Amino acid sequence: MAERRHGSEAGAVEGDFFGIVDLLDGEERKLLDRVREFLRAEVAPHANELWEAGRSPVSLRGRIAELGITGEEGDDAGVPARSSLFRGLLGMEMARVDPSFATFFGVHAELAMGSVRACGSEEQKARWLPAMTRWEKLGAFALTEPLVGSGTAAGLTTTARREGDTWVLDGEKKWIGNGSFADLLVVWARDVADDQVKGFVVEHGAAGLSADVIPHKIALRGVQNAHLALDGVRVPEADRLQHAESFADTNRVLRVTRAAVAWTATGCALGAYEAARAYAVEREQFGRPIGSFQLVQDNLARMLADITACQSLAVRLAALEEKGELSDAQAALTKMFCTTRMRETVARAREVLGGNGILLDHDAARFFADAEALYSYEGTRDMNSLIVGRAATGLSAFV
User: Fold this and answer.
1) Are 225 and 178 in contact (CB under 8 A)?
2) Which domain of life is it from (predicted)?
3) Domain definitions of the chain by residue range
4) Fold of the CATH domain 139-245
5) Which H or E run includes 391?
6) Is 285 helix (H, G, I), strand (E, B) or coil?
7) CATH architecture of 248-393
8) What mean pLDDT is predicted for residues 301-309?
9) What angle do CA 165, 170, 175 make, to 5 degrees?
């Protein structure tokens, strides 16, 4: 790996200005370096092409499995314990190259696997997690609905009706990443008997299940989001997540994934900064690189400051998660802050590139567009701010 410069005045400064990667132990650092090389060699060269075509990087699932970065200790034989910081940095590094790839990975490894890990019985975890760790079974997470986004806690309209040892699911889901091709769909539905949200694992091709890829997106085009329709889909009781009895259990999954999105947003900002910095030292106007002009340097400095602030907050979040002390409000604040700073950073990157900032050729345009999706999913800025506000005041502003 090339020598890091962090805050050195000699040469260009990379986005890890305070050297947070140095907090990893030796083995995790080596693994992160292998992931970086994979991203450089196999993801970066095709990111713009897949984005423009609206195609998923699903063809890389075998190569991802070979990296050995999926899952947590106990998910499958041989999976070692890894730190929360490593998992966060993994998401940051992926998004630094391609936020669509990071989201594709996160939907499977964080949302779908996280649901099984947090809410499944021991038998269910043993049945699904090993195959998901090896990418033999690819997962998706179906919570959001066409008419219900932020209001899922109280307004979920997809229903589950029990008939003996079978459940019947009816409803629709929207924005489901990987939903058109996932082998296992974690579907959240409201039990008509007790009005509580429960989780179900629905297999690809189940009778009554249809999935249409959502067209015309301007963000995360490399993620195939699906609109799902469930018309009398029958799911055996054995495939109901046995420890998902209310939305509080769903929220246990979301707490962790909000933290993951904060890292992804930081990576998106980092990728935009590095694209802008590279352009600034190469592009010449008035006989000199534009990176030598004060206004351009001010933009780069502000971007780097915001990225460093996000990294610092996310590092502390990882430490709290490691100790099992991360609260909903802390996860919400981190997601809210990092996605807001990301949005400002990608706008500055686009500004540095001028007219070329709207071309995929220089990468900044892709980060600029993808930021809009990261800003909204896993809870909008407004909804996360209300979670923080409730913690700060003891008063709920939710309807």
Assistant:
1) no
2) Bacteria
3) 20-133, 139-245, 248-393
4) Butyryl-CoA Dehydrogenase, subunit A; domain 2 (2.40.110)
5) helix 381-393
6) strand
7) Up-down Bundle (1.20)
8) 96
9) 125
